[in-house]
Backbone:
């Protein structure tokens, strides 16, 4: 009889503990409590893939890099030409950007063996005219014997043939102007007008 009473008592205590149980949690400042974390919660709490560290993320940036600021941004002749471009397009719906990389202008419509966007990123056109407000590219300009130069110490030079091929393939006009030519805003507008007016 005592054994039966003991079993009933243990059963009642177990039921009471289960009924009024409190989940284990962490108490935060302010009295807030974080409930127990289930497996699903832990999985959902993982950061997005782009923020997770992979096994290959072994690069630790140094405290400093061997860099210095360039003493110039434009090659000889480009600064004057850029000023004329700004004067030509002043008050219009067009804007001009210098040193526009090809991979920011074009995108592939089909795979090309041995060629990808990183290859296009190696080259830039001297100046890109876009139409506002969509920033739609309408015209490229390149100074011959002036824009083709190394992008950095030991870096590959811009390839005028590759630049011309890209513009021609995308049916985007490209004007190639002799860097030695002294061109003013009025003359520059006459060269650009046929391409700007048809956009």
Residues:
């Amino acid at each position: 009889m005592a054994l039966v009473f003991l079993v009933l008592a243990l059963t009642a205590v177990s039921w009471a503990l289960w009924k009024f149980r409190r989940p284990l949690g962490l108490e935060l400042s302010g009295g807030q409590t974080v409930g127990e974390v289930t497996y699903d919660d832990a999985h959902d709490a993982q950061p997005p893939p782009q923020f997770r560290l992979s096994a290959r993320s072994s690069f630790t940036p140094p405290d400093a890099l061997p860099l210095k600021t360039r003493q110039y941004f434009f090659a000889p002749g480009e600064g004057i030409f850029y000023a004329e471009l700004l004067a030509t397009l002043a008050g219009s719906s067009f804007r001009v950007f210098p040193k526009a990389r090809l991979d920011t202008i074009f995108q592939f419509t089909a795979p090309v063996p041995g060629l990808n966007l990183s290859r296009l990123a190696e080259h830039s056109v001297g100046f890109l005219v876009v139409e506002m407000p969509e920033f739609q590219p309408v015209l490229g300009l390149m100074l011959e014997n002036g824009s083709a130069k190394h992008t950095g110490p030991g870096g590959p030079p811009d390839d005028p043939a590759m630049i011309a091929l890209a513009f021609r393939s995308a049916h985007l006009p490209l004007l190639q102007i002799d860097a030695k030519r002294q061109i003013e805003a009025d003359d520059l507008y006459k060269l650009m007008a046929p391409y700007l007016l048809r956009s």
